[in-house]
Amino acid sequence: MEAHITRASRGDREAFAQIVAEHYASVYRFCARRLGPELGQDAAQETFLAAQKALARFDGSSTLLTFLLGVAHNQCRNLARKNRMEISFDEVWPDRSTEDVERRTIDRHELHRALKSLSLEQREAVVMHEIEGLTYDEIGAVLRVPSGTIKSRLHHAFLALRQRLLPSEELSA
Amino acid sequence: MSVREDLKAYVDGELSPERAEEVRLAVEADTALQQEVQFMKLLSDNIREEAVEPEVIGAEKALELARKPRRRFPLWLGYAAGGLAIIIFASVISPEFSQAKLAAKNSDLTALAGPERLKATFGAPPVATASSGASAGAGGFGRPAVPEHAAAKAASGAVGEVPEARDFSGTDPTLSGPQNGADAYTMTRENQVLGTNPSPPAKSPAAGKYLLPPPSNRKIIQNGDVEEVVPDVAIAQNQAAQIAASVGGFAENSSLSYSTQQIPTAAITLRVPAQFFGNVLQRVESLGKVTSNNVTGEDVTAQVADTDARVKELGAEEDDYVTMLRGARSIGQILEIKDRLSQVRQDLDSLKSQENALKDQSTLSTLNITFDQKPTTAPKPAPKPKPVEDRWAEDTFKSASDGLTAALHFLGRGVIVLFVYSPIWVPIAAIAWLVNRRVKRG
Q1: Rounded to the nearest 5°, which phi and psi values hold at B202?
Q2: What's the whole-number mean pLDDT along residues B421-427?
Q3: Which member of A44, A162, A165 has the closest CB to residue B58?
Q4: Using 50, 70 and 90 to split pLDDT, how confident is the model at B96?
């Protein structure tokens, strides 16, 4: 893979196409979760265009996916700003009809409401860790914040979710 | 840090082995913590289950874009366009910037007084001293050094109070050297614009450096006209005559008159040996404040030589006629020769007197001086310029403010030019931006 990166950074289009083929789905999902399918597609394409230029700066200190998601994060923010929209992660947990609801340990409606009550940073951390499967370090690299901050955001996010979903319980922070 | 705060990181496997072990032991010992861990795992599972996985679209297009050669704007064309833009911009802007800087410099020069201004304008002029009388300008033409007493006085500052602001124009004889025939040089020194307060004269050892005496082997007629304001015209008139006498010269003419307001004016014409002309001029100038000074020089060496040759030629012709007269046999011959001889002698006399006049004028220079009485209400003395070392803050401030003015002028000019040229560059920039966007989006 490193050979692909080196060749792609030197302008080998076929090597870059291989990188796109391998990471497009992850990058697209990352963007689509933030901007929706249409803008997510634009953002993913912009991400790879920008990454093609920036690939020479990739030093291998993180994974290529983390590097691409870092670029995608910036592209998403730029596109959201241009389209005057806010990244809310609403597309991640869409509302469901009552017919779909089945009795579970955790009530789905409550879970959706609880997730939407989180702050944007907390929701972002939850999405990146629980859904996109990134480690704390990787999230920190993408968002350019210390991993300790991500740990804190996730702790408080889960605390808030627990308080929301189990209000009768006495929880100490 | 409490165990509960690390519980989520423990569940996610993000703790260090040591901390993870501590948390594990704590969880094993506490059922409440165990329940929390269970709930977190359940919550994570539910969050993942509830999340909608977006269907991937646009992969083909992205691949196509990745394989497509990028339509890059040629780099050399970019550099060329940038360079051209800079040149055009600079050509429009730079004259204004230069003018602004020049104006700032001029204001600096205006602020400087006297010798400093001269120095700033022309650089440090050569200084004539007793030891270097035949200085750079004179050396090339084998000029003699300044007479010792004159140079010594100039160096000591005993004489040589010269007006501060001087503009020297014309040809410096020490630099240009005499040409064939009668070459003239003029050095005009205007102290101030009439009607303004004259600056106080500054004593300078370099005073009179432009007034080196003419070389002894050349015949130069030097004339000078000086106007100056003195406290007492009569005293100044006497002092001027004494100065002339001290170098072997004399006062040729002298007059004293009064205006209708009873303000006296004295005029005196001095004839002084040419080699002391500069010295006398300096000493006369030191009597008061010079308001005008005009010195002219005319090299008549060639003229004198020519006259001398013609005199010799006519002398020889005269001798020939005298010989012929002695050998004449007829009355007619005698009358004709005498007539010719008479004409030759007449021409000879005329040439000799002309030669003598030239020699006299080049031997004795003429200095016309006009003394005006100082007005009863003394003019306000000009503020004494501070020493350079005391003015560093002032100079720095002025320099900085001039620079700021120039920079603001430059920027203002740039903004105006950009605005005026906007009908040209705005559409180009808009098209370039749109094209760039289209290219990016494929």
Answers
A1: -105, 135
A2: 88
A3: A44
A4: low
The side-by-side arrangement of strands in the sheet containing B220-230 is B183-190, B289-299, B220-230, B364-373, B264-273, B250-258
Q: Which of A14, A93, A135 sits opposite B50 (nearest CB)?
A: A93
Alpha-carbon gap, residue A40 to A28, rounded angstroms = 6
Best residue of A154, A168, A172 to probe chain B, by most B CBs closer than 10 Å: A154
Residue A112 with chain B: CB contacts under 8 Å: 50
Looking at the complex, report in whole angstroms how far the Cα of residue B20 sits from the nearest Cα belonging to chain A: 14
Contact A48 B5 (CB under 8 A): no
pLDDT for the residue numbered B84: 81
Residues of B with CB under 8 A from a CB of A: 4-9, 12, 14, 36, 39-40, 42-44, 46-48, 50-59, 61-63, 65-70, 440-442
Closest CA to A73 of A134, A129, A116, A30: A30
In chain A, residues with a C-beta closer than 8 Å to the C-beta of B43 are 106, 111, 158, 161-162, 165
Q: Answer whether B56 sits within 8 Å of A25, measured CB to CB.
A: yes
Token output for B54: 């977006």
- Structure-derived torsion over alpha carbons of residues A35, A41, A47, A50, reported in degrees to the nearest 10: -120
Rg (CA), chain B: 46
pTM of the predicted model as reported, rounded to 2 decimal places: 0.43
* B256 vs B97 pLDDT, higher one: B256
Q: Which residues are within 8 A (CB) of B10 and not within 5 positions of it... i.e. 6 or more apart?
A: B20, B23, B24, B27, B37
Buried b (16+ CB within 10 A) or exposed e, A118-132: beebbbbbbbbbbbb
Is A32 buried (19+), middle (13-18) or exposed (0-12) by CB count in 10 A?
Answer: buried
The pairing of strands B220-230 and B289-299 is antiparallel
Separation of alpha carbons B266 and B235, rounded Å: 10
Query: pLDDT value at position A4?
Result: 79
Tell me the average pLDDT across B390-403.
86
Q: How far apart are CA B264 and CA B375, in angstroms?
A: 10
ipTM score of complex: 0.83
Count CB-CB contacts under 10 A for residue A116: 14
Instruction: Note whether A160 and A121 are within 8 A (CB).
Output: no
**Burial class, B206, CB count within 10 angstroms (exposed 0-12 / middle 13-18 / buried 19+):** middle
- Residue B303 CB neighbours (<10 A): 18
- Cα dihedral B332, B334, B340, B342 in deg (nearest 10): -130
For chain B, give the mean pLDDT: 73
Confidence of residue B307 (pLDDT cuts 50, 70, 90): confident
Whether pLDDT at B196 is above 80? no
Q: Choose from A130, A139, A149 for mutation: most chain B CBs within 10 A.
A: A130
Report which residue type is found at B437. Answer: R
Closest CA to B114 of B68, B67, B167: B167
Residue B32 DSSP SS3? helix
